[in-house]
Design a protein that fits this description.
Elements: H1 3-24, H2 26-50, H3 61-82, H4 84-91, H5 93-98, H6 104-132, H7 144-170, H8 176-192, H9 205-212, H10 215-228, H11 238-259
Helix pairs in contact: 1-6, 2-3, 2-6, 3-6, 3-7, 3-8, 3-10, 6-7, 7-10, 7-11, 10-11
């Protein structure tokens, strides 16, 4: 067996292991899917009916909220999956993996694939559920095929970015408790300043500046253009979103791979 084939087999084995652990954890599986769907129903309908928003298309806040819920699902699912590094380290499994013939970088990439696949799959499930609800009106302004391809690309790119961010933080934080605290401290502000819950176009200049410095903004903007918007006015644009999201995802992932304690 060639070296490349052994590497691919190692990645597949690590991915399969993480997927099995994920499906055995019913609480993580259900909570990461039910929370965004509950927010979509409760917050979306509550704002639409109770506040009658005028800055979203036809006052339909539920449909506007879909893109934000997809990003939120990827955010939390990818974060929880990335924390498996600490579980493996504390249980001693990490030492077992490190004595294999594969390099630490191969092991780390294999484990990162688990977080990316799980986060992407759950985010796309939320999209599928939202698309199947008659009350939610998605525009698919580039056609269903192209818009869906853009949405899938966005979700995968976002999960690569989040996996890289988790690796960067893991290089500085030595406990799982600290990891979750810092991730929440970083990710909640990023989520709220991304356009996930309210349009960015009419924000004050300093808030809009914070949003432009936020990587999640470009994922939300691209999903809204693909799924929700009926034009490009008030949005950053597909080209800008793809360029920024792709560049940041690659840069953070490579940086995280190089700084992660597993490869020290």
């Amino acid at each position: 067996m060639t070296s490349a084939a052994r590497t691919v087999n190692a990645w597949g084995a690590l991915l399969t292991r993480d997927l099995r652990a994920f499906f055995r954890s019913r609480s993580q599986l259900t909570s990461s899917l039910l929370l965004p769907l509950m927010l979509l129903a409760i917050l979306g309908i509550g704002v639409t009916e109770g506040l009658e928003p005028t800055r979203v298309r036809d006052g339909d806040y539920v449909s506007f909220l879909v893109s934000g819920m997809i990003v939120m699902t990827a955010l939390f699912s990818s974060t929880f999956s990335s924390a498996s590094f600490y579980q493996d380290r504390d249980s001693g499994m990490l030492k077992v993996l490190l004595v294999s013939p594969h390099s630490p970088a191969v092991i780390l990439l294999g484990k990162s694939l688990g977080a990316i696949v799980i986060g992407s799959a759950q985010a796309l499930i939320v999209l599928a559920v939202a698309a199947a609800i008659p009350a939610i009106e998605l525009e698919w302004q580039y056609g269903v095929v192209v818009s869906l391809a853009l949405a899938v690309t966005t979700v995968i790119g976002l999960n690569v970015l989040l996996s890289g961010l988790a690796q960067v933080l893991a290089s500085r934080i030595r406990t799982m408790q600290g990891f979750h605290l810092v991730m929440n401290l970083v990710l909640f502000p990023m989520l709220f300043f991304s356009g996930a819950f309210f349009p960015l176009a009419n924000l004050p200049g300093w808030l809009y500046g914070l949003a432009l410095a936020n990587p999640l903004t470009y994922a939300v903007d691209l999903l809204q253009l693909a799924l929700y918007a009926d034009g490009s006015d008030g949005y950053l644009g597909v080209g800008v979103d793809l360029a920024v999201l792709g560049t940041l995802a690659l840069a953070l992932f490579v940086w995280g791979m190089r700084r992660h304690p597993l490869v020290d």
